[in-house]
């Protein structure tokens, strides 16, 4: 991906994100999930496959786990430009992001299968929703009104549909987990597919605790 293309992509994201995130009344964890779900739109597919945001630490740094040191170095060259877009989005959604930190330890472990991580999991992992189940989740009238308002506000701008899709998926997943009575993380109270260790933490809180 050329520098010119990267810059154009980042500018397009910047133009759209402020209006999108400012209009969404999501709780803190859902805000963070939706915010981190925009990472591929900020850095592009090339880096999205080699890096993954895992949590926001107590100092306000977005912690991004990377495949190896070379990926961290490449992203470091884009740090200021990427961080500018992330901060803009974070302010609008009410999330505090003041910096960007790369983690070289968690990339592979955060993608491990159930069998590889079973020793760290207290609650048995339950299957997530199939695409058709997620599509069947009943959103409230307020949810639909909010989505329609956002769509009208965004118009035909580049990436608008993809960004709306990220937020709608987070809304549907959160409602599905609650409707299916999945357990809650003891730290953030978010419903989760599985909980880690005797502290019964969701993946976000677990990786935050071991990466501190």
Radius of gyration computed on alpha carbons: 17 Å
Can you count the helices?
11
Major sheet details: 3 strands, mixed
Strand order of the largest sheet: 1-2-3
Q: Uncertain runs with pLDDT below 50, 5 residues or more? A: 112-119
The beta-strand count equals 3
Mean pLDDT: 76
Structural features, described:
This protein has 212 residues and is mostly helical. It has one domain. The protein has 11 helices and 3 strands. A 3-stranded mixed β-sheet has the order 1-2-3. A hairpin with a 4-residue loop joins β1 (51-56) and β2 (61-66). α1 runs parallel beside α6 (79-93), α2 packs across α10 and α9 (141-154) packs antiparallel against α10. The protein is globular.
Topology of helices and strands:
Layout lengths: L2 H20 L5 H9 L2 H5 L1 H4 L2 E6 L4 E6 L2 H9 L1 H15 L5 E5 L10 H4 L13 H5 L5 H14 L5 H20 L23 H9 L1
Parallel strand pairs: 2-3
Antiparallel strand pairs: 1-2
Describe the structure concisely.
The protein has helices at about 5-20, 30-35, 40-45, 45-50, 70-75, 80-95, 115, 130-135, 140-155, 160-180, 205-210; strands spanning about 50-55, 60-65, 100-105. The chain has about 210 residues and is mainly alpha-helical. The protein has one domain (about 5-110, about 125-180).
